[in-house]
Amino acid sequence: MQTPQRYKGTTYNTxxxxxxxxxxxxxxxxxxxxxxxxxxxxxxxxxxxLFINLNIYRMNRLKMMMLAFLSAGIALPSHSQQPVxxxxxxxxxxxxxxxxxxTYYIRHNEEPKERASFYIIQNVGAILEEDNQNxxxxxxxxxxxxxxxxFPGKGxxxxxxxxxxxxxxxxxxxxxxxxxxxxxxxxxVTHPGLIDTCLLVLHDWSDFLLLTDEEIDLERxxxxxxxxxxxxxxxxxxxxxxxxxxxxxKYAERDVIGDLEVIKNFKPETLRKFYEDWYRTDLQAIAxxxxxxxxxxxxxxxxxxxxxxxxxxxxxxxxxxxxxxxxTLFALATDPEATQYGISLYIKHPGTAPDDxxxxxxxxxxxxxxxxxxxxxxxxxxxxxxxxxFVAGNISYGRLTGKxxxxxxxxxxxxxxxxxxxxxxxxxxxRVKRHxxxxxxxxxxxxxxxxxxxxxxxxxxxxxxxxxxxDIVNHFLxxxxxxSIDFDWEALQQLLPTISAEExxxxxxxxxxxxxxxxxxxxxxxxxxxxxxxxxxxxxxxxVEAAEIEPYAEEExxxxxxxxxxxxxxxxxxxxxxxxNATEWTLGNNAxxxxxxxxxxxxxxLLRAVSPGGSSLYPPAMLASAMMLSDFTGNFGVGxxxxxxxxxxxxxKNVTLNQGITELYESFTGNSTPKDFETLLxxxxxxxxxxxxDKEAYDALSSRYLAMVTNLAKNPQQIMSDSLQKILxxxxxxxxxxxxxxxxxxxxxxxxxxxxxxxxxxxxxxFFIVGNIDEATVKPMIEKYIxxxxxxxxxxxxxxxxxxxxxxxxxxxxxxxxxxxxxTVSVVFNSEIPWNPNTNMAMNVVRDVLRLxxxxxxxxxxxxxxxxxxxxxxxxxxxxxxTLQMGFDTDPAKAAHLKSILYREAEKLAQKGxxxxxxxxxxxxxxxxxxxxxxxNNYWMMVLSEYYRNGVNLDLASxxxxxxxxxxxxxxxxxxxxxxxxxxxxxxxxxxxxxEADGAVPAK
Length: 1004
Ligand SMILES: [Zn+2]
Description:
40% of the residues lie in helices and 18% in strands. The strands form four sheets. Strands 1-5-6-4-7-3-2 form a seven-stranded mixed β-sheet, with helices on both faces. The protein is globular, with a radius of gyration of 29 Å. It starts with 11 loop residues before the first strand and ends with a helix. Residues 12-14, 138, 142, 226 line the site of zinc ion.
């Protein structure tokens, strides 16, 4: 079954992963320290809802017991004399092995249509490096894109980009301690010859890298910059933790990015030796999944890869051991830029050997999923109802790295309360160790697991190529199961009843052991007095172990969301929307409902409700409450049910509903299965008519937020993001930053006032419903629930508060305290240009052409950065404006020169326009994405919402494809010229404060 969500752990990509249009005032990325296989050492979720931990399993491909085994009616024998059968492989996946030891996997799949993904999976990683190669596994991965036998220079990227396959997004690779995987994704295979081209690329990666001295030297700069970009507080703390967590193991010594001295100075032969030793057919797999002919591709693979000779007497591929230990180890990691206080207790266990991953193993994996989900709920309940000394917590069992598992017991503490947090989270662990889980907890977890698996199964035709490939990667590397979703769904139904609370309780008891334990304490440097030391930590464990702990208790919950009879109101007007296959209904209470059937995702219905107004209507003194409201609403519950009760009531149902307030609009966004759509409408009804403002939940969540935000001021990302936000908004009092002061400005009373005001008038909302639900079913439900919402006589519009960039050019150089010498350059252009499909498309083309230019000029030619971010925004409201933002990290000494290239290339584009090659690459890529986006329910939600907001039908080719296909270099030039000529500019460079201080005191 299904492995934990595919954390690749500490991985390093070749290309800067582009994230599309990033918000200008993006919050700092959540940064979780990961062990090699991806378990967070400290849960440092920035927002409670974003907290990542290892028990976020991907439910979509739950792999189960063999069906035949089950249908024979045999309960799973735990002490059977019979050997446990192996796990059946998805019959639609062709697996083979060539004489030279190379494995291949091929599967036909049509999501997306006319596309395929091509992977080479190498059972090779940083763990195989000698000390003089520290960092070279990853360096080698970069070199795969810098010259091969059939694709010299930048040939691979250049060839594929001509077909719209973009570097970074579609072409990429990653390296971690035990694996290196390259992918060419979403390749349009209808183009003749492109399958052969991709296979040839994989072939060259397998054994034919050129590794020239010149290209190696050029890449040293890029990787040094990647090293700089990644060197943050979590990275530095990880360097202190690994030697303890992985004591006496090679995992303690390899961090993948490696040693900067090695990166800058290694001899080319050293890299070539690593390549020759480890990139070889017996450690490689080729995998192709997509809209292809399996026999044909198999023939091509045999011919092309069969000719590669097997290595003679290759070195053995060994797996690093982690030696066991009786005593409890302790690691303290601090950093000046750390923003959180963390405590963890890790208990290491041997994992299952690849050869033993049989049906019993798969059943065990289901048990782990259920256990982790139960513990997640218990911790959520603590956080919701009480005020525990931790702001986020995690108790879960899963994979650590290589062949090891871990029981992770971790908490992110309130500032300075590390001792209490350890006591509290460890008490929860011992509660489950001693008393186990309850049958009703287990029933809820099973019910939720079934529902989610059923949805995946019903939507099996929407499983994407790259999802299959993730499973294939795990099957090849560690023999994880590779079953079909049909099998999984059938088996899950039969298997769940065989898993009992007693069985899982006994496992938990065994997982929470007293050997192989490691305590980890993390926090800001200089605050050591607030961090527990080794003696204190050990004493706390002893104290909890000696204490009496009560079993977990829970109350009965109600079963009906809405008790009273709803009157509803009928549809009074119907209008069809030409060209969109949609219907607009007006109900008796003035609510407008726009409905469109869409069955692309079969087990899915989308809901959206939107009304103008937003936070624009409030004075600055109320904005803190408005800004934080959406984060709190979900924790308040609804009607007479608190959030925990509500969650229990929704067991086994697939519904989500989120409330949002932006500057101009208030909204609800939700989705459900067709079966649970009525429940979704009930929740929507209650959110409008019976919202709940829960003081206990407000206090609990505010104090968690405050704890998380308190030390953010030390985080360079946060400092930069805040400064930029202030500059870009002209220091408007309406700009609210996430600081401790914000929490003094907001209140539950204000939140309630704003909420009740925003959602007082359903008659001012437009509701959108898109999904696999027919009109006859949906219409009476709408009349009943949406038709019962309160209409009020007011008509509202948002107002323009005139917040925007200062006129002209603003240039700033801002020194900030930084541990790693790094400059961050950010340049923003903002122009008033009318919003329409033509100018929007021209803006997007300019963005993508510049991405190509900057990658070539600043990354490849100058070796000056790991990647340049370029984002564009097209806005119509509150006023017509377009924004282009670009930025990168670099060596402070190079910042001024590299920044001038940002301008130089923009200027070149405005004067000469794009080259035909660049324009062609960009247009093909946007068209390819568009084609893939269309057959999806959410595409229609986007089209309809945009139509109601901006009055343009973006589904029409004349508003999209035609514009792109007819776009000439001359038009792009004209647009760029106009855009840059009238733009206001913010030009901001953040640089290390320390460099200046050092300069003031002459160094000897
Ligand atoms: Zn990299």
